[in-house]
Amino acid sequence: MDTKKTKSVPIKKTSNLSVLMGAVFLMATSAIGPGFLTQTTVFTQQLAASFGFVILISILLDIGAQLNIWRIIAAAEMRAQDIANKILPGLGYFLAFLVVVGGLAFNIGNIAGAGLGANVLFGVDPKIGALISAVIAIGIFLFKEAGKLMDRFTLLLGFVMIALTFFVLFSSKPPLAEAVTRTFVPEKIDFIAILTLVGGTVGGYITFAGGHRLLDAGIKGTKAMPEVTKSAVTAIGVASLMRIFLFLAAFGVVAQGLTLNADNPAASVFELSAGKVGYKLFGIVMWSAAITSVVGAAYTSVSFIKTFSKKIEKQSKAIIILFIVISTVVFLTVGQPVKTLVIVGALNGLILPISLGIMLVAAYNKKIVGDYKQPITLTIFGILVVVIMSVLSIYTISDMVSSLF
């Protein structure tokens, strides 16, 4: 039987630390977008302290999904779409189509979120704010060392978001004892909330952002597995830390009997906790969350098509810029076409079980992963995520389509 001879890349800890952290924050900040902020506050209002249990379970599922995907990409030394094509010719093109279409749809929302953040901060028209934000995102990919600049950009804004949200948490004074208790002994359990959080953290293009970034930086092979594993878990940890801080901040507001604004619940948390200053802080967090998600969505979506052609790979930066331009133009001219975004967004939820299922099959194909041995616990975790996300996605899509038509 032919086996793939696995290449190994020597890990230079000093030079690779920035790449590893860049992959961590590229994935984490891709997850922390406008939808992330809204979902967290809405579910906190619905479930109160019991939302802590939802976060706990979703973190475990997120880790199971992401560890599988990142480790198998590193072992195969190929991007997800190429792995898929090795399993079944044409499957990689289908996966790439799902990722690119879903990423483009969500990027319209990310551009809109950046415009909203700029509006809160400076009072400019959201469309002007969106345009300026798009120019900033495009500027990153105009640099020769775009990868390094992207790493530093997401790292900086990731720290800013977490620090400011922690400040708001401190201001809202949540009942911590109750939050901790209900995290392990919930009064009610919402499975839809669990699966929504899993999809929002590692669904669609998000989980591939860091994995493909490490591959582009040459961190791959079995000898790199400890760094890949640590990076994957840390990325989930960073996104989860932001989720926990925002949950506690929102719980502090809800526990006081205050009502969040249904039109912008995340902004309400910041404003009700810290007044006008809090509202401005929300603008910074919203802009940071949106602009880093714009960068992550564009980079990762294009990484799914650049291996299909030498010309595409050579012009990948230009295509990334075009991706951002198209997202911006659609928002500026059409806005967010609700029906289209809802349906395409629901389809995005199918990407995780499809892509993770492909990775799990690949993990046991020696022609793809060589001598790499997949831990059975990771396989079991992965199968669990595939099953529950598939059931929810099919149910959600059928329900949405029937309600729209």
Short note summarizing the structure:
With 405 residues, the chain is mainly alpha-helical. The protein is built from 17 helices and no strands.
Can you lay out the helices and strands and say which pair or pack?
Blueprint: H1 13-31, H2 34-47, H3 51-76, H4 80-87, H5 91-122, H6 126-142, H7 146-172, H8 176-184, H9 191-202, H10 206-216, H11 225-255, H12 265-303, H13 310-314, H14 316-333, H15 338-362, H16 366-369, H17 376-404
Helix pairs in contact: 1-7, 1-10, 1-11, 1-12, 2-9, 2-11, 2-12, 3-8, 3-9, 3-10, 3-11, 3-15, 3-17, 4-5, 4-15, 5-6, 5-12, 5-14, 5-15, 6-12, 6-14, 7-11, 7-12, 10-12, 11-12, 12-14, 15-17
Radius of gyration over all CA atoms, rounded = 20 Å
Strand content: under 5%
For the record, give the distance between the C-alpha atoms at the N and C termini, rounded to a whole number: 52 Å
Number of E-type strands: 0
| Structure classification | mainly alpha
